[in-house]
Write a structure and sequence with these properties.
The chain folds into two domains: about 140 residues, no CATH class; about 170 residues, Orthogonal Bundle (hpI Integrase, Chain A), CATH 1.10.443.10. It is about 45% helix and about 5% strand. By secondary structure, the chain is mainly alpha-helical. The termini are far apart. The protein is globular, with a radius of gyration of 23 Å. It is built from 13 helices and seven strands. The strands form three sheets. It has a three-stranded antiparallel β-sheet. A two-stranded antiparallel sheet has the order 1-2.
Length: about 350
């Protein structure tokens, strides 16, 4: 038997199982089966019953869907990072399952509208609706360019306007209280790093000691959401925390915030490690539950970092660079917190 070629990140993603999330409609989808892939199970969205897709025609259609999605993902990976590829392909997968699509050439605009309507009924935010519509339009545009679809059925679909609300953030007394609670829960260093560096949850999870320069008081983010690395200076509190943690872990540990496994070896934590880690802190601080989702609770620390810096007079350009924003428009949402006095306000008085 010959040696198998190591699959790429995109191929690994397309080959894994996607299990149903009880909080959303979903299903085990495109299960890997040797020697071929097949779509073997439909999961009912409301009853929870499994409806087996039987017959050669369903198997052939499922294989064509998988091949098409893999080709699309490989094409998209040429111009986007793996996180964007996962996001777009995940949205397409969700659409195919919910609308029971087996033939992409038969997709209609009504199916796209029904899909977005079901998300609206499930209380999806306007931003999520806009993102899903954009991902579907990108996929259908690719199908049109390949001659697999007559027209882009998702082009021009109207979604609710995204309200540009000011970001929520912790005040200084709330942050001190949150760090005090975090000491009791054993996650003080994680919350301290998030609040004083502005790193995203996944960036914090993948942070390695080789990227933390304690002598120069700066860290480098390599696993970024937008695919660009950046450097973030460390303030005094963050630097003291990292130095103390380095002394505790010793010189052999490579990951800053590792997950200790049963065999004693350390590795990366799961992507949603903070969901249960914040269970005892969220009820104590109302702002942690203002958005109603665990993800927003951890991202609140990133907003807190940006808000504190802008309030202290740091320029929006610097804050945007430290946060890793690709567009200045994303950083302008903190502009109202700047303390600068504009003398033009006195004109005409």
């Amino acid at each position: 038997m010959g040696a198998c070629r190591k699959p790429s990140q995109v191929q690994q993603f397309l080959g894994v199982r996607l299990y149903k999330n009880p909080a959303r409609e979903g299903a085990r989808f495109f299960q890997e089966s040797r020697p071929r892939a097949r779509l073997d199970t439909w999961v009912g969205a409301t009853s929870g019953n499994c409806l087996k897709a039987e017959g050669d025609s369903s198997d052939v259609a499922a294989m064509r869907l998988r091949e098409t999605l893999q080709s699309f993902a490989e094409s998209l990976s040429l111009s986007a990072n793996v996180y964007r590829v996962r996001r777009v392909v995940g949205v397409v997968r969700s659409f195919i399952f919910r609308q029971r699509v087996l033939e992409l050439s038969a997709v209609t605009r009504q199916q796209v509208e029904d899909y977005l309507s079901s998300m609206t009924a499930a209380r999806a935010s306007p931003g999520t609706l806009k993102n899903h519509a954009h991902c579907l339009a990108q996929f259908f545009a690719w199908l049109v360019s390949r001659g697999l679809l007559a027209e882009n059925v998702a082009h021009g679909i109207k979604t609710p306007r995204v309200e540009d609300a000011p970001p929520n953030y912790l005040r200084k007394d709330e942050l001190r209280y949150a760090l005090l609670l975090a000491v009791r829960e054993g996650i003080h260093d994680e919350l301290c790093a998030a609040a004083y560096t502005g790193l995203r949850a996944n960036e914090l999870r993948c942070l390695a000691w080789e990227d933390v320069d304690l002598d120069r008081a700066v860290l480098t983010v390599r696993q970024s959401k937008n695919g660009h690395f950046r450097t973030v200076p460390l303030c005094r509190r963050a630097l003291l925390m990292f130095r103390h943690r380095k002394r505790q872990q010793g010189p052999l540990e490579t990951i800053v915030f590792p997950s200790t496994r049963r065999n004693g070896h350390s590795g990366l934590r799961s992507k949603n490690w903070w969901v249960h880690a914040l269970d005892q802190i969220r009820p104590q601080i109302p702002r942690f539950t203002a958005k109603g989702t665990p993800g927003a609770a951890f991202h609140l620390l990133r907003h807190t970092f940006a808000s504190m810096k802008v309030q202290a007079g740091v320029s929006l350009y610097k804050v945007g660079h430290w946060l890793g924003h690709r567009s200045s428009q994303m950083t302008k949402r903190y502009a109202h917190l700047a303390p600068d006095f504009d003398p033009d306000i006195e004109r005409g008085v």
